[in-house]
Amino acid sequence: MNMVSATGMDAIQGLEPRAVWEFFDRLSSIPRPSFHEERVLEWLKEFAQERGLTWDQDKVGNLVIRHPGTQSGVEAPTVIIQGHVDMVTEKDEGSAHDFMSDPIKLIRDGDWITADGTTLGADNGLGVVTALAVLDTPKDSKDVLLPPIEALFTVAEETGLVGAFELDGSMLTGKTLLNLDTEDWPDIFIGCAGGGDSLLTLDMKQEHIPKDSKTYALKISGLAGGHSGLNISDGRANAVKIAADLLDRIHAMLPHVRVCSFTGGDKRNALPREATLTLQLTEPQATSIKAKLEEWNQEYLKEFGSREPDIAFELTAAALQSHTVLVEQDIEALTTMLLSLPHGVIKNSHAMDGLVETSNNVASVKMTPGDDATSSVCVVQCSTRSSIGCALERVRRTIRRIGEGCGADVQQKQAYPGWQPNPSAKVVQLCKDAITTTTGTTPELKAVHAGLECGILGERIPGVECVSFGPTIRGAHSPDERVQISTVEPFWKATLALLERLATVKVQYCTDPNSANI
Which of 160, 357, 485, 491 is deepest in the core (most CB within 10 A)? Predict the structure, then answer.
């Protein structure tokens, strides 16, 4: 593989459009995990002030920067350009990267930009910097025709669309919104799934470790992971579900094997790539398990090998972290719950070929100390998606039943709404025309099995019409995330072409109050 590895400017040297890539390089140097976006928001405010642009911010942190438009476009109704500033923070096992302080190291690999063992942040960094490149247009530009712009930068999208939910819609006047957060150029997205999370909490008792036992770590690794909506239909394996299955097999073979901890997965919207069981074993028990691991590994490779060629199971000696193990009854309840919870595609759409309608991701298992030395708290998180609200809630009721049947406390916040497709919306037709003219290719109109902010923003900004598009990104929400270089320039040109059409078309009708909005 001819890979050129470099940090920042060297990786993007010579790429067009220059402004977009330079802003992306700068954005990549600023840590921006969900709920820790303050540094990037300060940078955006400085950007606005340096250019004489006004801005507003609501109490949750969402930021709006305004550009008055150019030429005759200043008379057109306002257009909102929207993206979220936070990013998913996933990294390869063993990586020392600190998402709270370290910049993302960009790597150029042929026609792709990726990162060094971490998520890239092209989701939704490319949308953010494209909006900045638009805002960077001089107000007196004779070359670029723009309508008035409200660039909306939302926060905490990756942790449940928090910024969109808590948006102060009074900051915005536009009724046409361009969401730059989809990942299949040149297609146009006009609908998305709704979703809701479930937290299943088990209080687990502990007791002293058995005599003559040693600590071992059973690791499940090498899985592809990925976006829990966009990649759920790929048939990828789930490390948490595999770990539960292996633990069930171990207990069937060796009923009294003791478990210290069970952890796996990380983010609610990422497919779990790794999981670890910490076990207390006698030497004969460890020998028996090691003898079976290769057989079990081969079974999973046979089932998932075309999607998961790197699945690996490994049992190794580990340092003693605690002098206690989980009581057998509680680990049995956890295993039963994890094996019973649904994962993957539950139903495909009957209305749109190729669209997943309903799915669930068993996203993570995390353990923390309890109130005293004889207890632990185990939290299992599930992320459910559906384009049909009643189907979404039916799956969530099933999850609740399973959790409560296993003794868990189940918390489910209100689900976020989907975005209902409206292919006849004027902005959709203008976007289709802009992309067709720019690329010579007619884009498809699609819906996506992922959570976009458009559905919520439609409630927070009454009367707004939305469309979503973006450059090609693969491997989102995993360290495999990459953006295709050759799609960024046509995406940029089509964005400008669409804004020009919105300015020009709306200018023609702005004297008619009944025709001012698309």
Answer: 491
Mean pLDDT over residues 352-380, rounded?
Answer: 93
Write the DSSP assignment of 450-496 as a string of letters: S--THHHHHHHSTT-EEEE----EESTTSTT-EEEHHHHHHHHHHHH
Give the strand order in the sheet containing 112-115: 4-5, 106-109, 112-115, 482-484, 473-474
| 157 annotated active-site | yes
Tell me the mean pLDDT in the region 75-86. Answer: 97
Structure tokens belonging to residue 43: 């940078």
Across the chain, how many H-helices and E-strands are there? 12, 23
- Predicted pLDDT at 373: 78
Whether 86 sits among the annotated catalytic residues: the reply is yes
State whether residue 289 is helix, strand or coil: helix
- Do the strands 79-84 and 63-67 form a parallel or antiparallel pair, or are they unpaired? unpaired
Is 41 strand, coil or helix?
helix
* Average pLDDT score over residue span 291-318: 96
Tokens for 83, please give them: 């993206």
Q: How confident is the model at residue 508 (pLDDT cuts 50, 70, 90)?
A: very low
Which of 358, 408, 418 is closest to 381 using CA atoms?
408
Phi, psi (rounded to 5 degrees) for 431: -65, -45
Average pLDDT over residues 36-48: 98
pLDDT digits (tens, 9 = 90+) for 277-291: 999 999 999 999 999
First to last CA, the chain: 48
Distance CA 188, CA 431 (A): 8
Distance CA 314, CA 328 (A): 23
Q: Which of the following is catalytic: 25, 86, 90, 116?
A: 86
CA gap 394, 397 in Å, rounded? 5
Three-state DSSP class for 356?
strand
**How far apart are alpha carbons 63 and 37 in whole angstroms?**
11
Residues 123, 157, 330, 465: which is the catalytic one? 157
H/E element holding 281? strand 275-281
Backbone angles phi, psi at 331, to 5 degrees: -70, -30
Phi, psi of 48 (to 5 degrees): -65, -45
Q: Which of 479, 440, 400 is nearest to 122 (CA)?
A: 479
